[in-house]
Amino acid sequence: MTNKKNPIWTKSFVSISLTQFVVFITFYTLLTTLPIYVINNMGGNEAQGGLLATIMLVAAILVRPFSGKILERTGKKNALLMSVLLFAVTTFLYMWINEYEALLALRFFHGLSFGVLTTATGAIAADVIPPERRGEGLGYFAMAMNIAVVVGPFIGLSLLQFATFQTVFLTLSLSMVLGVICSWLVYVPQQAEEFPAPVRKKLSFHDLFEVKALPIAAISGLTGFAYSGILSFISLYANSLGLASISSYFFVVFALLMILSRPYLGRAFDVKGPSFVILPCLMIFAIGLVSLSFTQSAWGLLISAGLIGLGYGSLLPSFQTMAIQSASNHRSGHATATFFTLYDSGIALGSYVLGLLITFTSFSALYVMSAVIVLLTAGLFHLYQSRRRQHSQEAHTTLNG
């Protein structure tokens, strides 16, 4: 008798991962290039450029709680197709926007489709991965987003060296055609589809959030809060150290360490459990932040990037896996929406709060505080896991008693 593993890399998994990859390349390319577009082509300032990122994230956060309900009412495949088409059409519209207010409105609309789309891709990815390999599979799936962090800005900034912004927008629009095609190729298992429930007059909390996923989603939100200091301020920190030429390599090293560690850590999550992976990764993440706070050299910056990539890189897919596993299969869309609502909120709140902190202290203090938050998160996660084990033992005792 052979213990043959069910495959992860099916046509549906590859297709949903490529859809995610193309969407996040578009997201990160625009995130990097639009502030430049506002300043150079619209006569705006840095604050207006930054608002473009914030408004899209706010729109995504606002629609997240409703995303699970949308997936339930329309079916996951239909929700995926509708949201990826809307996201693609919105991407095309950037070529015809010449006023800042119109661009701001377009970014908000783009955020709405982005919120539903990324909820759908996350829920479907969990459905097409064999349950016993979900930690490993979602780790690979998360790499699509993390690699796009490097590829997106590289494509955008490279194109701007010899082409116009219209060329950048056209390139992203054409790439989204690939995203639409890939989404059509995804097959969602029939038992994973969510069918319309009886219509109720009032929308309840249960319709918007998966209660069982809230604790781990809140823990992921704290992790996102700490990570926002990297996303929002690493380039400014590198500039303050005179390492602007090295800052572009930060996420390259980050992604490399994440990719190298994913196969082992994903399998370890499934075989040895969440604590075996998450607690050490939180500690390594905290060490990387402390190392970053004290760095003065290019090597120090890149070593910190490696530590943060090794530590943080596995946390998001691990937390997402736990959130999905906490709910029944037909509620995976709600669990995914709940997870990303709190995670995105952590990123948004962290960017604002840590930005205020910089005005009173320094970048070094910011990253030390972020490390403290990560250590606090590790304590909360350990407490959460202890409570889960206790409840499981009590349930087992009651069942056998």
List the helices and strands and how they pair.
Blueprint lengths: L10 H31 L4 H29 L1 H18 L6 H29 L5 H26 L5 H20 L20 H4 L5 H27 L3 H4 L2 H23 L1 H21 L3 H15 L2 H11 L6 H29 L2 H38 L1
Helix pairs in contact: 1-2, 1-4, 1-5, 1-6, 2-3, 2-4, 2-14, 3-4, 3-6, 4-14, 5-10, 5-13, 8-13, 8-14, 8-15, 10-11, 10-12, 11-12, 11-13, 11-15, 13-14
Q: How would you describe this structure to a colleague?
A:
The protein is mainly α and 401 residues long. The protein contains 15 helices and no strands. The protein has helices spanning 11-41, 46-74, 76-93, 100-128, 134-159, 165-184, 205-208, 214-240, 244-247, 250-272, 274-294, 298-312, 315-325, 332-360, 363-400. The protein is globular. The two termini are 35 Å apart. 50% of the residues are buried.
